[in-house]
Amino acid sequence: MTETEILFHIIVNILIILSILIGSFLILSASIGIVRFPDIYTKLHAATKASTLGLAGVLIAAFMFLYIQHDIVSGKLLLAILFMFITNPVSAHMISRAAHKKGIKPVIKNRKDAYEQYKENIKTN
After folding, report:
1. DSSP assignment string, 34-97
2. CA geometry: angle at 64 spanning 59 and 69, to 5°?
3. N or C: more exposed end of the chain, with fewer CB within 10 A?
């Protein structure tokens, strides 16, 4: 191996390690947020934002490892990343909308709810 190939492998391994560490930290922070946050809306925020990015970081690291070390292009990993980026925000939106329609209020006292105002305007018109 030449010196540039060795340097390339070192840089790629550092990127893989950083991606796994950042992804693991985001997954850990998502799980802490689910336990610590007070209402369903903030818990959903923690569950979807941090866990989506955390799992994406780990899957990207796995994809990079397989591609660089073993010359394998894993379509399953790419599909998992794509599926996760599509379904997590949609499912969080549906759950929060169902909670809102059920009448669950956020913990924040001074809030402005555009959806409630919209529903009231429809009733009055």
Report:
1. HHH-SSHHHHHHIIIIIHHHHHHHHHHHHHHHHHHHH----HHHHHHHHHHHHHHHHHHHHHHH
2. 130
3. C
Q: Is the dihedral of CA 55, 59, 65, 70 positive or negative?
A: positive
- Please state whether 104 falls in left (phi above 0), alpha (psi between -120 and 50) or beta: beta
* Placement of tokens 């191996």 in the chain: 1
63: number of Cβ within 10 Å: 21
Is the CB of residue 61 less than 8 Å from the CB of residue 20?
yes
Retrieve residue 5's tokens.
């190939």
Question: Using CA atoms, how far apart are residues 94 and 82, in angstroms rounded to an integer?
Answer: 19
Q: What pLDDT, in 10s, does the model give residues 59-117?
A: 999 999 999 989 999 999 999 999 999 999 999 999 999 998 898 888 876 677 777 78
CA 15 vs. chain centroid, Å, equals 20
- Give the count of domains, the chain: 1
**Do residues 32 and 88 touch, judged by C-beta distance below 8 A?**
no
Tally of helices (H runs) and strands (E runs) in the chain: 5, 0
